[in-house]
């Protein structure tokens, strides 16, 4: 796989606050994982609290995703990640016991967005970031192209489709 090209559209990792990002399906809002004020702003924009059951997706670079530091990948999940590593897919995976972060601490699992565009891969190479659609809670996201991203829960060798998109997992 080729390395992502640097892009002037990739927000600087040391910048604080919410940034707008183009995904393969919709415009999104993001905040770097280490940016507490940015995450709080993202929570405010989406009217979400720490007790909310809907968690922001986490976008990880390949090394972070496969390290076991953030999420647990059993053999089945690892096969899916390797097969679809550049596909428009979000996998809801068990959170690693070693991953401690004030936003994610109340959640037993995390939706990991596989970076399917060059822009998202370049950003993920800079570090982990949270991602959500750029719309108010309950509002319609601003589409870019194509069907929505497939979202699937993966645990104990099984797949549960939460939202069917372009990718059909079996």
Can you give a write-up of this model?
A hairpin with a 4-residue loop joins strand 1 (19-22) and strand 2 (27-32). The protein is 19% helix and 24% strand. It is α+β, with helices and mostly antiparallel strands. It has helices spanning 36-45, 62-66, 75-83, 118-126; strands at 19-22, 27-32, 57-59, 89-94, 109-113, 129-133, 150-155, 158-163. The protein has a single domain (19-163), classed as DHBP synthase. The longest helix has 10 residues, at 36-45. It has an 8-stranded mixed beta sheet.
Summary tags:
alpha+beta; DHBP synthase; 170 residues; 4 helices
* Count of domain modules: 1
Q: Strand order across the biggest sheet?
A: 1-2-6-3-5-4-7-8
Instruction: List unreliable stretches of 5+ residues.
Output: 1-8
Helix content: 10-25%
From the spread of the alpha carbons, the general shape counts as: globular
What proportion of the residues form beta strands (DSSP E)?
15-25%
The SSE string, one letter per element, is EEHEHHEEHEEE
Query: What is the average per-residue confidence, as pLDDT, rounded to a whole number?
Result: 89
Q: Can you tell me the CATH superfamily? A: DHBP synthase
According to CATH, what is the topology?
A: DHBP synthase
Largest beta-sheet details:
8 strands, mixed
The number of helical runs is: 4
What integer value in Å does the Rg equal?
15 Å
Tell me how many strands there are.
8
CATH class: Alpha Beta
Report the structural category: alpha+beta
What is the second-level CATH architecture? Alpha-Beta Complex
The first-to-last residue Cα distance is 25 Å
